[in-house]
Amino acid sequence: MNRPTLCEELQAEILSWLRVKTLLRFKCVSKSFHSLISDPWFVKLHLQRSPRGVDLLLEYLEDDNNLESRFLVPCHIGSLSDNHKATVAHDRTLGFDISGYGVIGSCNGLVCMAGRCKKDERCMFCVWNPATRETLEDLKCSFPIPSGHHPRRKVAFGYDDLSHAYKVVLMLDALDLNRRSIYRDVKVCNVGGNSCWRSVESFPAKTTMQGSGWGVYLNSTLNWVGLDLHDNHPHDSYITFDESVIVSLDLRNEKSSQFMLPQALHGICMNGICMRGSHSLGYDWDFHDCLGVLKDCLTVFFHDHNKRHISIWQMRDFGNHKSWSLSLNIAMQDLQIVSMPRPYLHPLIMLEENEVLFIEGTYKRIRRVIYDRSGNIVEHPQIHCNIFGIYPMTYVQSLVSQKSLGLCV
Amino acid sequence: MAERGESSEAVMLKKTEEEKLRKGKMIVGDESKAGYEEEGKKVKLVTSDGVTMEVEISIVKEMEIIQTFIGATDTDDSFIFPISNVSSHILNQIIELVKGEYDQELAKKLSHDELKEILVAANYLNMKTLFHFIATAIANVIQNKSVEFVRDFFGIVNDFTEEEEAELRKTNAWAFEGVDED
């Protein structure tokens, strides 16, 4: 009996569900496999189907006193268990040396890092695909930093699906009378090519930004939590949720808009903790990030240290402040977190409707905490490592490469 | 974890499908024979090896190619639909998978050739849920396998020269680590 054969279309269908590592291997199968796997059409299909929430990138610091000793290590969430400690601590060949760079964001499976050249005060950018381990040379670039004294510059990275361009956003600040940073000038630039900075016209004038400065990327927009500080706001007072807004920059038309945070949180104090700074470009000592993306929704993560509980709010319909809904509300004791008083705890992945994976990263340790709202099941294997700290982030595996850039992905 | 994600996606797909069918049924119900609506009713399908099989309407409903045909014409009990690309053996396998609500364990019992034939059949019959299920099942089979395994699996002849292949293997040498035995 003849063995059944599959036409190329059906072969492509099967291959589109495979992991990137497997596909890189299968490029050797035949010339037709090689061209299929490199085809921008296939790269796009694969990216759409690439599972969300299973791949992590661990940024780790070997020594607190030396910010240059940092590495990025990709890992599958399944390997995040006790067995992983050896890998994290020793396998440097897996990772990308980001000395001198800080991660500023990730989209389409690419991670963008920014650094500052000490000699000539230029911003340097470098884009890396952790799944293929390729550095995209065409996107390597540097721009002069606009002149003026800007103590807290922030940068962010995203993709404009209209012009198929990767863009970086640079926020330049000035200090107000209370020595608070006010972002007065926001500039956008395409990564790669001979582009130059363009100013964003409508950016809110008196806005300072919460968080590490990475804009949170979602569907061609970058989003920050901004505080619209009026001049008579007392310097040392707490900032509440109603004094803040989400500032959103649409990378397609380079225009900004803003919308309110969940109404139920109005009047409540946004007390953050200082954990992560974007070391390379500014001198930030930042608030704990409270904005993220879970299940393709813009998400506010609120860690109330006084009442010791955590809540997660999601904007179901992007841009519509009436669509904020409470997804999760957990008492800290249910999570069995022991690293008190203020753990670095971040919701990374919403696994199912009722499950959230938190990563608790404290000194020399990373913990995976899965909270299941329906059954209160908590799972928290630990990884101890011989390094100073780990900062996890999620990314999506993709085949996006030098060759497929600007074509259709 | 990935498996759970996939299966829930499959369920979602199935739900949309059912919804679509329900909507379709409402329109069909107005103008076609009422008998088609009856639960437990069977449709006769003639397979490529000439076997006439009576298949439950709930399963036939997933075959969009037949669905369109039924919707477009008046049908009665004597209606026989030829499916010239699908053997009785494969149709039986398909019925098992649909009845088993697309359980990954069932897919593991299928041979490689059966998996491929079901994929071809699902594509021909336009069974979206089955197609997605089988494509991901085959992907799971080859995920950690060697280049040689995949050539054999798809019946592909290597058209690279020895030098070309060696060069490609060198470029992504790390992707060849940790591969399962064939």
From TrEMBL, chain A:
Residues 6-45 form the F-box domain. InterPro entries: F-box-assoc_dom_typ1, F-box-assoc_interact_dom, F-box-like_dom_sf, F-box_dom, SCF_F-box_component. Pfam families: F-box (PF00646), FBA_1 (PF07734). It comes from the Eukaryota. NCBIfam families: F_box_assoc_1. This is F-box protein 22.
UniProtKB/TrEMBL annotation, chain B:
Transmembrane segments: none annotated. Keywords: Kinase, Transferase, Ubl conjugation pathway. SUPFAM superfamilies: POZ domain (SSF54695), Skp1 dimerisation domain-like (SSF81382). Residues 128-175 form the SKP1 component dimerisation domain. It comes from the Eukaryota. Residues 41-97 form the SKP1 component POZ domain. The keyword Membrane does not apply. GO terms for biological process: jasmonic acid mediated signaling pathway; protein ubiquitination; ubiquitin-dependent protein catabolic process. Part of a SCF (SKP1-cullin-F-box) protein ligase complex. Involved in ubiquitination and subsequent proteasomal degradation of target proteins. Together with CUL1, RBX1 and a F-box protein, it forms a SCF E3 ubiquitin ligase complex. The functional specificity of this complex depends on the type of F-box protein. In the SCF complex, it serves as an adapter that links the F-box protein to CUL1. Belongs to the SKP1 family. This is SKP1-like protein. It comes from Vigna unguiculata. The lineage of its organism: Eukaryota, Viridiplantae, Streptophyta, Embryophyta, Tracheophyta.
